[in-house]
Amino acid sequence: MAAPRVDILMYHSVSDAGGATSIAPAVFAAQMQAIADAGVPVITMDDYLAAEEGRATLPDRAVILTFDDGFQDFAQTAWLVMVRHGFRPIVYLPTGFVGRAEGWRGIGSPPRPLMGWDRIGGLAADGVLFGSHTVSHPDLNHLPPAARAEELAVAKRAIEDRLACPVAHFAPPYGLANAAVRAEIARQYRTSVGTRLGQARPGASVFDLPRIEMFYFTDPARWRAHLEGRGAAYFTKRRILRTVRGALMNPWRGI
Domain boundaries in the chain? Predict the structure, then answer.
């Protein structure tokens, strides 16, 4: 029997801003409808962790919806689509920018606004999960150990204090996390997702979980084919091209 496969989908902004970190609202709605039509269960990062810890069982195929940065358009656009399908996503917050505009490298033009704590609290009450994306959205690989640990700890504490619930999940900015960073993440969190393209499978490290950047699946037919198990050739091609590009240049993508 084949091991369960989990597609952890990666989103940032759902808007018409353009660029690799924005998905047009109509495209996003079509992607969510395709998941519903295919009958692929949408689970949460809590569900995935429970299965890894032996407290639950994963379906043979599942999807997890993740959003980095906490842009306002998550609440204004993306959540309104997902709630109609009963989908529960997770949003990774850079706490120093909550209620402000993005201010890290690779920002959009004009900079996109992030949700404030009041909106985040309301969404949490409605079932949205929240994880940490550090405080200041730095490249953790280039921080001294003490500063790195503080970025993770302060962000975790800020979200827990605001939402009055534990924060178990993390996403490193730009997907950059070397062995030392992953070790620090493991000391403070229970899972971490990156930007490595692939499907999550049981037994793999929960501190280096791959994701699928949904910019690669803006073609509805291609996305439906992937959900139906007919997209292996395209997926393999994208993974190879991404690996080659990462070997030739700094892999950050303004994420």
Answer: 5-248
* pTM across the whole model: 0.94
Q: Say if residues 90 and 65 touch (Cβ distance below 8 Å).
A: yes
CA 238-172-217 angle, 5° bins: 25
At what angle are helices 117-125 and 145-163 packed, to 10 degrees? Answer: 60
Residue 136: phi and psi, rounded to 5, are -110, 10
Where would I find the beta strands (DSSP E) of the chain? Answer: 5-11, 13-14, 22-23, 42-43, 61-68, 90-93, 129-132, 169-170, 191-197, 209-213
Model confidence at 254, in pLDDT bands (50, 70, 90)?
A: very low
| Per-residue model confidence (pLDDT) at position 250 | 53
| 80: CB partners within 8 A, 6+ apart | none
Q: Alpha carbon of 34 to those of 86, 102, 184, 214, 239: distances in Å? A: 14, 30, 37, 13, 22
Instruction: Measure the CA–CA gap between 228 and 124, rounded to whole angstroms.
Output: 32
> 5-248 belongs to which CATH class?
alpha beta
Greatest Cα pair distance, the chain, in angstroms, is 50
